């Protein structure tokens, strides 16, 4: 019995920020010893809503490689692979597509939301529409046992299981593996503007690649308590991004509790909180930033490792695709 | 300047009948000298509405090989290839999918009709839904210059041109070739029951593989003039399948005109018309039947040639897919 396989991944559409760090990256680092970890840079899927901007997707592949390295993903332990280097994914997608329905995709809440976000109106690109099923092919390609997800995403794994089960049932086989979800509690990081989500397009993100100076500027802009005019006014800690970040990044939680108390009592200035927050975050992010700078000079090496892992995934996928062809009676020779 | 490339093909879902013969097969034989002909056995597409019956699709691949050989398709001139042996088709499909919309597919009249025929109701398999765009990938794979079609199908080629043009425009390139249609006048062959279309599921087809005895039985069942009770009643030739078949298969058209005149005058028995029709059709189909019997013993050889052509198409497709990847900035190494 080898280690169980897990699959995670990202669309390369920009650099990664502290939302990614707390939401998934730190978890991946934790999991990479216990599991046989596969991390996909989904550049083909990134193109589905960025097909007019291929340069961005191209460049972001390298940004992700650096971000992964920076946070401590070990390219010799984790199989970081690039979707475009595994053409079998497309083939396996087509084989699975007979077991998904367009109605099922139409009812997918993520797709519904993203359709509105992308403003597709009356012309939804097919490439975008098929991506949830294309993702099932990703799972099949690596033969994932487990998919680390937050509660919200559990239904996506459930949909994948249904499609895989239907395929197996139709051809009276068990060659495809139904992945299970590995429920984690991804930490949600609000934007510096107080928005629920941090994102590039929202212009409210703190990037892993931000310099100390950029970090300071952003920390001093974080949304605090808008009703607090003077430092002697009692302030609210809930929904106050400075304190949310303190909760996420501070080591000494007693210190944070003390600051919260003083804030509520009107006994600490906003600027004092922010100065301390900057110090704490900078200390946390400093080693990541240093490793990221190091990674910038290692792009070729990181790419080489990712291409090697891609080849490995491609080989595993070829075996699976051939097994699928066999049960579909497509083996002729 | 080499010969222009044409692409035709069939879904392997059964043996071929005289509807195929007059609709497309004879035309392909005619075109195979003048053009660089590619003939696709679309077994992956056949599975989209036969995914629960893979054995039928598998066996039909061999039926088509025999039917092609029987009608005179020269496997050394025409590139008979098998879709499942060209995985690049799926990859190219995914690259094109960003330039097609689901609304466009929903408005495709063929898809609309087939959805009803297939009785999909509220669960349309994604595999079926995507096939019109998957067909565009077929065209791109062989780099088709021309697609032989009847008038009805010209819009399908036009749709393909639009998708290909959008791809080229998005990436400021001309790597993909917009195929044009080669308008033919495919002869429509009604079913023996007088139905507009001949088809396996309609149980009204005369197969190329039918024995002389089967042919005779079917010819004697053809729909004639239902209002003609006695041989002395004046009969109607229009919509009379016996005379439609005579028009399609007779060499001596004067003889046919004479028979039509006598039929209209009530001067020839139905049975006499049918007897002569049988003779004429049997003479026409005899050499095809003989070659088909010969082909049955050559299945391995025919498959080998088809696999060789498939490899060739796969290689051409790989080059195209790599060019596409390059303009999409997916080339990383």
Task: Tell me what you see in this structure.
Two copies of one chain form a homodimer. Chain A has 333 residues and is mainly alpha-helical. Chain A folds into two domains: 5-189 and 299-327, Rossmann fold, CATH 3.40.50.620; 212-293, Tyrosyl-Transfer RNA Synthetase (Orthogonal Bundle). Chain A is built from 14 helices and five strands. In chain A, the strands form two sheets. Chain A has a three-stranded parallel sheet with strand order 1-2-3, sandwiched between helices. Chain A has a two-stranded parallel sheet with strand order 4-5. The interface between A and B is large, with 52 and 52 residues.
Q: From the helix content, strand content and strand pairing of chain A, which structural class follows? A: mainly alpha
Distance between the termini of chain A: 34 Å
Helix tally of chain A equals: 14
Q: How is the main sheet of chain A built?
A: 3 strands, parallel
Short description:
2 copies of one chain form a homodimer. Chain A contains 14 helices and 5 strands. Chain A has helices at 18-34, 43-48, 54-71, 88-97, 102-106, 109-117, 126-129, 131-142, 154-170, 212-220, 241-249, 253-265, 270-296, 299-327, and strands spanning 5-10, 36-41, 79-82, 146-149, 180-183.
Secondary structure layout plus pairing:
The structure is a homodimer of 333-residue chains.
Chain A: E1 5-10, H1 18-34, E2 36-41, H2 43-48, H3 54-71, E3 79-82, H4 88-97, H5 102-106, H6 109-117, H7 126-129, H8 131-142, E4 146-149, H9 154-170, E5 180-183, H10 212-220, H11 241-249, H12 253-265, H13 270-296, H14 299-327
Parallel strand pairs in A: 1-2, 2-3, 4-5
Helix pairs in contact in A: 3-13, 3-14, 4-8, 4-14, 8-9, 10-13, 11-13
